[in-house]
Structure formats: structure tokens, C-alpha cells
Amino acid sequence: MPEEFNLDTFNADPVTEDVSDDATEAAPRTYAPLDAAAESQADLSAEMKAIGEAYAKALKDGAPAETQPRLDYAPYRSSVLRHPTKSLHHADPETIELYSPAFGHMDVHALESDLTIQHNGEPLGERIVVSGRVLDGDGRPVANQLVEIWQANSAGRYIHKRDQHPAPIDPNFTGVGRCITGTDGSYSFTTIKPGAYPWKNHLNAWRPAHIHFSLFGSEFTQRIITQMYFPGDQLFPLDPIYQSIVDPDARDRLVATYDHGQTRPEWALAYNWDIVLTGPKRTWTENEALGAEGDDDE
């Protein structure tokens, strides 16, 4: 399904218009009143600042770095409901594999990595190329891995029945793609830069632009999910999901870098983002943060 957002949190479209037959001209849009009881961005920012300062002090006092998100990060209000609270159950991986789908190179076409050619027309927005490598903790390439992505369109809207916020749907953009990593662990997607979108964590909450990544190992029980962000996003300090990784260096590893060398003249800007699966420099994954709910979207 689209995005690690919990679309259950979205309400119906707050925009109402006069569409009666006797209306002589377009009526001005009116918006539902803001909930005065809702927490403000300032409230959440103050909480995140306090947590960050406490973490910095702990580091100074010799505490180990936290390279993965806190399971219960208070400013991310629903995190208490979205992470495991009991011991995990062990399962026989061979038994699970008997009921899992299978894929091979013949099942993943090279054109599936281009999200801009899936319909009859051109999608709207800024065309980009996102590429990088999948690596293990020692920097060695991880070849022949299935990489899937999903994202919002350039207006910040997902193709999903529960995403009903007032942003346009692009009929020429579905927002999903996949590829197989090469022998050097490389992957590449051509897509549209996604837009930011609102969510209901607090009053006037917005998620930074991002792309969701799913990777499979040698077995389907090894699936991991993560997110890639874009450099310089002004929403970073305001987003509780991004800030749930309290270590700045670990957060930075989720942000792609602009790669002018891979930019295609008169066609698309390019970003590079490597995914590290193990070790102290590994990329954050939602599975660890959200447990069984890690496959859902936000």
C-alpha cells in the first residue's frame, strides 16, 4: 500500500463549496474551523527540542549513540500504539517461505523503474533520478535484491482511497516502481519529486517530502522498509517522525545528496542515496521503529 503514513488518521476533505443549481457564480471556499484544543507545532517543537538537548547531554556524559528511532517517541503521538510492547514470537523461516510469493529477474521488467512512463501522458512535477547502492556493513555491494519504492505525487497526494486531503490527483502518476540491484549493488529510479503533505499528529502538521523504500533479502522474512528525504527541507526540524531518530548523524543518513554528475541534461536532476543494511552506519528501517505496523504508511 502507499506510504508509511497511517492514512486512517486523515479526515474527510475539509473544503466545502456551494454547488447548488441556483448559484450564479462560484462561491468562495470555506474551511472547517481549526480545533482550538489541538496541540500546536510550537508545542511539539518544544518537546522535540527538550528530547534533543537531553540526548546531547547524555552523549556528553558517555551514553552510546542512538542510531535507530526510539520506539515510543512522545512527539510522534501514535508511536505508543505502533510499536511492539511484548516479546517477539520466533517463527520458522522455511515454513513462512512456503507461503510467500516468489520473484525473479523475469518478473521485474527494466521499465518498472521509470515511474514517469506508466500512463499515456506525462506526470506533472519536477522529474528526478534517484540512484545509489545497497551495501552491507563492510561496504560490500548487495546484488540481485528487489528494491521497491512508493511515494506521493508532486502535490503530496497518494493514490489511495483514504488519502482525501485537498490536493489534486495526477492521472498520469501512480507513484510505485521497482528494480533489481546490479552486481555492484546499484539501483536507479526515474520519478517525480514528491510534495509535502499534511497529517493529523498535531495542528498544522506536515511531513517532509520523501520516498519509501522496501528491500528484500534472500528470503521474504528479511524485508525492510525505510524512507529517503531530500536535502535542505525546511520541515525536518518540525517532523516528529524524522526527529524520532535523536542522533543527528543517523538522521542525516536518510537524506539524499544532489548528484550533478548523474543529472540528465534538459531532462532531470539527480540524487544519490546509498542504503546500508548492517553495522553502525546502517540506514534506519521502519520495521525496527514500528514492529508489525512497519509496513503501513505515514
Radius of gyration: 21 Å
Structural class: alpha+beta
- Mean model confidence by pLDDT: 82
Low-confidence residue ranges: 1-26, 289-297
Largest sheet: 5 strands, mixed
What does this protein look like?
With 298 residues, the protein is of the alpha+beta class. The chain has helices spanning 41-60, 79-82, 93-98, 240-243, 248-252, 286-290, and strands spanning 15-16, 30-31, 127-135, 146-150, 176-180, 186-192, 197-199, 205-207, 210-215, 224-229, 257-258, 269-272, 275-276. The strands form four sheets. Strands 3, 6, 11, 12 and 13 form a five-stranded mixed beta sheet that branches. It has a four-stranded antiparallel beta sheet with strand order 5-4-9-10, with no helix packed on it. Strand 7 and strand 8 (205-207) form a beta hairpin. The radius of gyration is 21 Å and the shape is globular. The model is unreliable at 1-26 and 289-297 (pLDDT under 50).
Looking at this protein, list some descriptive labels.
298 residues, alpha+beta, five-stranded mixed sheet, four-stranded antiparallel sheet, 6 helices, 15% helix, 19% strand, globular
SSE topology:
Elements: E1 15-16, E2 30-31, H1 41-60, H2 79-82, H3 93-98, E3 127-135, E4 146-150, E5 176-180, E6 186-192, E7 197-199, E8 205-207, E9 210-215, E10 224-229, H4 240-243, H5 248-252, E11 257-258, E12 269-272, E13 275-276, H6 286-290
Parallel strand pairs: 3-12, 3-13
Antiparallel strand pairs: 1-2, 3-6, 4-5, 4-9, 7-8, 9-10, 11-12
Summarize the structure.
This protein has helices at residues 41-60, 79-82, 93-98, 240-243, 248-252, 286-290; strands spanning 15-16, 30-31, 127-135, 146-150, 176-180, 186-192, 197-199, 205-207, 210-215, 224-229, 257-258, 269-272, 275-276. The strands form 4 sheets. Strands 3, 6, 11, 12 and 13 form a 5-stranded mixed beta sheet that branches. Strands 5-4-9-10 form a 4-stranded antiparallel beta sheet, with no helix packed on it. The protein has a two-stranded antiparallel ribbon with strand order 1-2.
